[in-house]
Design brief:
The protein has about 270 residues and is of the alpha/beta class. It has ten helices and twelve strands. The radius of gyration is 20 Å and the shape is elongated. Belongs to the class IV-like SAM-binding methyltransferase superfamily. RNA methyltransferase TrmH family. InterPro entries: Alpha/beta_knot_MTases, MRM3-like_sub_bind, Ribosomal_eL30-like_sf, rRNA_Methyltransferase, SpoU_MeTrfase, SpoU_subst-bd, tRNA_m1G_MTases_N.
Length: about 270
């Protein structure tokens, strides 16, 4: 498939790519937008070629760009050369990346998850902030977790903001989404510890023994974990607040929990 040049902002293909900023369009197409050659490289390393590769006219020659073009062509995707103005409109930035990719979304059904594949998994209930979600996906990847399960009405992990915050880990981490009812039924067969986090918990986050694989449940940024999910946990724990602040950012708290659990499994080098 040869490369084609598009210079018009009103081109139908460009309008379709720009529309991926809207959740309803992402859900309708099953696609999402990733920006930058680093992101494209992370995707290729995971066997995920873009269905559409948009390359700026002024993009510099690079071995990774050559690879991206070759793998996009091999997978039957489109390669489109665009102007700087189009890149600005698509990315909504004055200084846009010179390479953008459109990818297929991948969700893993709950019943396809193999808990023993990794020592730690994360479940998030009604997380609302895309930056938090993206950072948690990146942290889960860094710590060696198996994946992130989204419970209830969560922010879209494939929004542009969430994808940016993953720094490419969106391609490496299993992502699943489910209802509260489905999750509770599925959780009953979890083979290891299920650990909830609550400010009113009596156990510290390092005080309880953990059976791996562990499943860490984190609640909404404002309301925390609901009573139904807290009751489904083997233990609920808290992170001590020793200063004036009475809570932590969700992504920070999740990172603390994830490393506490994975260090016990992998062993800490610190």
């Amino acid at each position: 498939m040869s490369e084609r040049l598009i210079t018009s902002l009103t081109n139908d293909t460009i309008k379709a790519v720009r529309a991926l900023h809207m959740r309803k369009e992402r859900e309708a197409t099953g696609r999402f937008l990733a920006e930058g050659l680093k992101f494209i490289g992370e995707a290729l390393d995971q066997g995920r070629a873009p269905v559409m590769l948009l390359v700026g006219q002024d993009a510099r020659s690079h071995p990774l760009l050559d690879r991206a073009k070759a793998e996009t062509k091999k997978a039957g995707g489109q390669i489109i050369v665009v102007t700087h103005a189009i890149l600005e409109k698509i990315s909504r930035r004055d200084n846009p990346q010179t390479v953008l990719g459109v990818f297929e979304q991948v969700y893993t059904p709950l019943d396809a998850i193999r808990p023993d594949a990794k020592p730690c998994w994360v479940a998030l209930e009604q997380v609302r902030d895309p930056g938090n979600l993206g950072t948690i996906i990146r942290t889960a990847d860094s710590a060696g977790c198996g994946g992130v399960i989204l419970i209830g009405d969560c922010v879209d992990p494939f929004s542009v903001e969430a994808v940016r915050a993953t720094m490419g880990s969106v391609f490496a981490v299993t992502i699943s989404k489910t209802t509260r009812e489905e999750f509770l039924a599925w959780r009953a067969s979890w083979p290891g510890s299920v650990i909830g986090t609550r400010l009113d918990a009596t156990h510290g986050y390092r005080d309880s023994p953990v059976r791996h694989p562990a499943l860490i449940l984190m609640g909404n940024e404002q309301a925390g974990l609901t009573d139904d999910l807290a009751a489904a946990c083997d233990v609920n724990v808290k992170i001590p607040m020793r200063g004036r602040a009475d809570s932590l950012n969700l992504a920070v708290a999740t990172g603390i929990m994830v490393y506490a659990v994975t260090d016990a499994a992998y062993g800490s080098s610190l």
